[in-house]
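We treat protein structure as text, and this decision shapes the records that our systems exchange. Below, we set out a record of this kind in full and without editing:

***
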Amino acid sequence: MTTHEPLTAEELAAIEERAEVATPGPWFIRLLDDEDAMNLVAISTVPDTGHGERWPDFDHHEIVAATLIQQPRYVDVADARWDENAQFIANARQDIPRLITEIKRLRQLLAEKGRQDLEA
């Protein structure tokens, strides 16, 4: 959705609720490997070890999402931005709550400024 309309309080609350019910963070990028996934780029609840673990040497319960699974081509975006997409997804877990807090803070400042202007 691309819009230039201001974010409503209801929309902000819905975004906040989605963030609150998602798997707790922080999230990390994991570079895994096996004969099926081939260079699996995943978003995980645990940091990457740097060893490119192969199945079953990693716990699938730690994987939140994947941006590349090559064999067979289950997850492989056409623009080949799987690393960039993984970075975006992993960081969204802490970025979204932080942005929500900042929006609320700025709205509060604007409301206080508006009250001061009315009182002046």
